[in-house]
Amino acid sequence: MYFVYIVRTDRGTLYTGQTNNLENRMKMHRSGKGAKYLRAFKSFELVYMEECQTLTEALKREAEIKKLPKSKKELLLVELG
C-alpha cells in the first residue's frame, strides 16, 4: 500500500509527496530528514492523503496533483479530504 499526501505549511503553502509508510515519512519530515522544501518552515500539518495500490499508481497520482494550481488543490482538500 502506498500513500499520496499533502501537507500545509505554517505559511499556507502545500507540499505533495508519496510514500509506503506515511507515519514514518511524517516523522522524517518533522525531524528535518525528509523533503528539503519542508525544512524552510517552522511547522506543517498533514491535510490530505489517498491510498494507492502500487508505487506506479502513487507516482502518477502525485504527479497529477503537483500539476494542479493551488486553487484546484484546495478544492481537492475540501472535496476529498
Question: What's the short story on this structure?
Answer:
The protein is 42% helix and 28% strand. It is an alpha+beta fold. A hairpin with a 4-residue loop joins β1 (2-9) and β2.
What does this structure look like?
The protein has 81 residues and is an alpha+beta fold. It has a single domain, classed as GIY-YIG endonuclease, CATH 3.40.1440.10. It contains 3 helices and 3 strands. It has helices spanning 22-31, 55-67, 70-80; strands at residues 2-9, 14-19, 44-52. A 3-stranded antiparallel beta sheet has the order 2-1-3, sandwiched between helices. β1 and β2 form a beta hairpin. It is globular, with a radius of gyration of 12 Å. The relative contact order is 0.25. The mean pLDDT is 93.
List keywords for this structure.
81 residues, alpha+beta, 28% strand
- Number of structural units classed as domains: 1
Strand content is: 25-35%
DSSP strand count: 3
Low-pLDDT stretches are none
Helix count from the secondary structure assignment:
3
**Based on helices, strands and strand pairing, what is the structural class?**
alpha+beta
Determine the fraction of residues in helical runs and give it as a percent range: 40-55%
What is the CATH class? Alpha Beta
Q: Write down the overall mean pLDDT.
A: 93
Distance between the termini: 19 Å
CATH-defined superfamily: GIY-YIG endonuclease
Radius of gyration over all CA atoms, rounded: 12 Å
Describe the largest sheet: 3 strands, antiparallel
Strand order of the largest sheet: 2-1-3
Order of helices and strands: EEHEHH
What is the 3D form?
globular
CATH fold-level label: GIY-YIG endonuclease
CATH architecture: 3-Layer(aba) Sandwich
